[in-house]
Amino acid sequence: MNLRFLETFVWVARLKSFRLTAEKLFSTQASISSRIAALEDELGTRLFLRDSKGVSLTPEGQKVLEYAERMIDTMQALKQSISDTGNIQGRIRVGAMDTVIHTWLSPFVTRVMERYPAVEIELTADTARNLNEQLLKGYLDIVFQTDMVNGDSVRNLELAAFPVRWIVPTGSLYHRSYASMEELARERIITFSKNSRPHQDILNLLHAGNVSAPRINCVNSIAAMTRLVRDGFGIGALPPALVHDELKQGVLTILDEVPEPPALPVVATWRTGVGLELSEDIIALACEALDVYAEEMGEACMARVAPAPEQQSA
């Protein structure tokens, strides 16, 4: 029995979608359908029901899933037992936007160092736009930022999203009710760097609220932005994850009465090709770190989007 077909079956069952499975496995829907059809022919039974509502397992498919998951887990355990990641050498160049640096980057890097102690990690912190340019020019291997990147031999995976909220110092002049976005925008708004994804989202939100001349202050540094909010310079449009401790201590407060800004996506983008096979495993480790971080912080601070990609032997 083809284990790759079994793995495809497991992902279709989990994601309930041939399209999402194709994206997950970096394949096509036609290829995914062909694998499932071949598996059904081999087993002599239908595994999925397909209708306008999507894809669901048949009773027989549910039985197969239990065995398939055990077989896949066994194979992964076997590969792990005979691999010697400690002897893998090389260099991985990782770029990350400030929000990632200040949240889950450290546990991610720790996982990489534990799995690949002989691999040198080079870190670059920059804006999403600059990181993407460096990736396309070949100066970086993996970047964690906000946007999908088009390019030859480049892959993208949306990993998670940071909710963004209006945050003010507790008990300050800004800590009050606002009847509309127009009223809120009369105050100073502190957000991310000019023309960044969150900056554009804030502009669009204010435009939808008929605000024509907002008082927006764009700050490149997360540390500076959070300090300005804490010191009462204005109203911050920030992910609560960046000021989790201050919110927990009651130093800062989230305004709930006005519409929330759009969430800040986290996209992993990496270069593929000969000599870059290690990147796939690094992305999988990032997903593991994000799973733990999201569970610890809760949905108010982080929403996971994607499962880990297929791991390939490095």
- Mean pLDDT equals 87
**What string, H for helix and E for strand, traces the elements in order?**
HHHEEHEHHEHEEEHEHEHEHEEHE
Unreliable residue stretches:
310-314
Which class best fits the helix and strand makeup? Answer: alpha/beta
Overall, the morphology is globular
Largest sheet strand order: 4-3-5-12-6-13
CATH class of the largest domain: Alpha Beta
CATH H level, superfamily name of the largest domain? Periplasmic binding protein-like II
Main pleated sheet: 6 strands, mixed
Instruction: Using the 3D structure, state the CATH architecture of the largest domain.
Output: 3-Layer(aba) Sandwich
The Rg value, from CA coordinates, equals: 23 Å
Number of helical segments with 4 or more residues: 12
Estimated share of beta-strand residues? 15-25%
Instruction: Give the fraction of residues assigned to helices.
Output: 40-55%
CATH level-3 fold name of the largest domain:
D-Maltodextrin-Binding Protein, domain 2
GO molecular function, one term: transcription cis-regulatory region binding
Family: Belongs to the LysR transcriptional regulatory family.
Protein name: DNA-binding transcriptional regulator, LysR family
Pfam families: HTH_1 (PF00126), LysR_substrate (PF03466)
